[in-house]
Amino acid sequence: MSNSPKIFKNLLTQQELNLEQSRQQGDWADLAELLNRGKKNLQKEISLSKVRERDHKAPLLSEKWQPLGRNPILVIDASRAVPGEVGFLHLIYYETYKIIEGALLAAFMVGSASGYFYVAADQRRAFSLIQKALDECYAVGLLGQNILGTGFSFHLQVHMGSTDYVSYSDDVLTDSLAGEKQPRGTLFGQPVLIHKVETLATIPTILRRGGEWFSALGTPHSTGTKVFSFSGHVNQPCVVEESFGVSLRSSLEQYAGGVRGGWSHLNFIFPSGLGSLPLPKSFCNDLVLSYEGIGAFHSWLGSGSIVVANGSVNWLMGTLIAMDFLGNIPVSGCLFCREGIPVCVGLLKEGQTRERKPEEDMKRTISLSTLSQQIETRCQCGYAAYALNPIKGYLRYSEISMDREVESHVL
User: pLDDT below 50 — which residues of the chain?
Assistant: First the structure.
């Protein structure tokens, strides 16, 4: 798919557009006709497409929409990301209007009359671009009351959230948006539907080109295309759109210029930012970029934000880098996360001492394993299951990688 994106053409040019330029590229084309086709016909295309939510659970959209109550509030999750997760920001910067149109169409299909675009407080550029785009859409009747005379009304506003990390839990996100604790699965007393940016941005193209067109791309389980980002020890960090089912190695070489120092120097990867379970090189040689391909190794593809570590970073160093963020980021977590995760980080740091003795390493490893399991078992907020992934990878795979550093010429 090099230089031939299927949906997100502006990821290549990296140009910020206004509404008129977006319409010239085909966004918003025949919107009234789409809405006049009716909810059931549009829902049928979504079902045929087999499109999945672009998160770590990756449910089918057609199934995610089934248990919704009446008049749900739609929330677009652009909250604070972990290091390495940049794809959704590129979509906000360069495909803003596809996201908004996708939100409108999703709202129509699920019967939503209002929505929020939740943006982290430190993403000022994203907030400004979204607000500008919303203002343009309201000005020409693409949002608001009786959109294009179809009888459908939808109001969408951008909300500047906190700098806390909230996207690990839908309930934490809605609590942050409301400013107070909300009953599970609700927002302001109404059912809530939360979608990732990329999920909504795919919807307009699916409905215009058809669900069968979309499902013919990718794999039977992971249909369509995905926005991938490659960062870390790669020669050319980038954000690209590719079909599911491509190999990690070929994608790294084609788009990111390969691993710094060459493929032989690959040590491990985080397949979905620093909060995902890292995978050693032995798993990466034939790794396929799909939900099932990554899931086979008990990790997830999620955001598709692939962070590469070569031999200049051993497993202990890589784990500490990830935990430096995950263990210190502001979260409204439970006592076990707030108190227990820093203790885990302390145990990891003890392993950095130069005079390491095998018996002390074994004792430290057992303590780390026991403590992390206890935290995850007793966690009441859900954060531990996410934040402890780098430690799980270290405990599970560090012996495979030989936990070593190599010569500085690899840097």
Answer: 1-3, 400-411
